[in-house]
Write a structure and sequence with these properties.
mainly beta, 8-stranded mixed β-sheet, 15 strands
Length: about 250
C-alpha cells in the first residue's frame, strides 16, 4: 500500500513535518462500503512450501503490525449482506502451514495453508457469516474452509505470526466447522450479537487445486431487536402522543 504524504510548507520546521508525515503514514485507511457492497481484504497470508516459514502475500495491507490496514466501514448502513472472496493460486496456500481444531464446536482438525483477513467497522448488530467454494475439477479447488472473528485494536497494530495466530487480539468466535463436500466446500460462522466497533473476520483454508481455488462469502448484519420492555415503552409513548393530540384538537 502506498503511504500517504503531506506537503510541508517552507515555514514549518523539519521536525514538525516529519511528525506529520509519520502520523499520516501509520493511519488506517477507511473504505466506506455501501449496502450489499464488496469488502476489501486487509491481508492475504499463504504458505509457500511444506515445513517452511509461511510467506506473507502483500495486498492492500501488510502483517508488519505497523503499516496501515484497510478498514471496511459498514457504519450507517441499515441491515444488509456484504460479500467478499478471493482466488488462491497454486502453490501458495497448497501446503499445510498449521492445523486448527475447535472441539467446543465439534470440529475435527483442519489443515490451513492460507488466511485472508477483513477488518470491519460495524454498528451494533446480529451477525453471521458463510463461505463456500465450488470444486469442479482437479485443477480448481479449496478444502477445509473455516472462519473466526476477533477484536481489532488499531493501537496494537495487526500482525499474523509464523504459526498463523493473531497478535494483540481478543478472540470472539473460534474457527468454524468446515464441510468438505463435492462439489461444494463450505463453512458457517454463527457470530450472534456484536457491539458497535472494529473486528477482524478471518477466512482460512487449503488450496487443493493444481491451478487455483476460489471462495466466495457473505457477512450478514441485522439490527439488534429491542427487548420486550422497550417495545412496550415505545408503544405506550405512541398511544400517549395520540391521546394528547385528541385532547388538544
Amino acid at each position: 500500500m502506498s503511504r500517504q504524504t503531506r506537503d510541508c510548507s517552507p515555514w514549518l520546521a523539519g521536525a514538525v513535518c516529519a511528525v506529520l508525515g509519520a502520523g499520516a503514514a501509520q493511519a488506517d485507511t477507511v473504505v466506506p462500503v455501501g449496502m450489499g457492497g464488496t469488502m476489501t481484504a486487509t491481508m492475504t497470508w499463504a504458505d509457500t512450501a511444506a515445513n517452511t516459514t509461511p510467506n506473507p502475500v502483500y495486498g492492500t495491507g501488510t502483517n508488519s503490525g505497523t503499516s496501515p490496514a484497510v478498514i471496511n466501514n459498514l457504519i450507517g448502513n441499515p441491515a444488509s449482506t456484504y460479500i467478499f472472496g478471493n482466488t488462491i493460486y497454486a502453490p501458495n496456500g497448497s501446503y499445510t502451514g498449521f492445523t486448527v481444531s475447535d472441539l467446543a464446536q465439534g470440529q475435527a482438525t483442519e489443515n490451513i495453508g492460507f488466511l485472508d483477513s477483513y477488518v470491519i467497522n460495524v454498528p451494533s448488530a446480529m451477525a453471521n457469516s458463510s463461505v463456500f467454494s465450488l470444486n469442479l475439477s482437479s485443477q480448481l479447488g479449496l478444502s477445509d474452509l473455516t472462519m473466526r472473528l476477533y477484536d481489532y485494536t488499531s493501537a496494537n497494530g495487526y500482525q499474523v505470526n509464523s504459526t498463523g495466530s493473531v497478535d494483540n487480539a481478543q478472540l470472539i468466535d473460534n474457527w468454524s466447522q468446515s464441510t468438505n463436500g463435492m462439489p461444494i466446500a463450505s463453512s458457517i460462522l454463527n457470530i450472534g450479537t456484536l457491539q458497535a466497533g472494529k473486528y477482524v473476520l478471518e477466512v482460512g483454508g487449503l488450496e487443493t487445486g493444481s491451478v487455483s481455488g476460489t471462495y466466495a462469502g457473505q457477512l450478514n448484519l441485522t439490527p439488534v431487536p429491542l427487548p420486550a420492555a422497550a417495545w412496550l415503552m415505545v408503544s405506550g409513548l405512541g398511544a400517549f402522543g395520540a391521546f394528547r393530540r385528541r385532547r388538544t384538537s
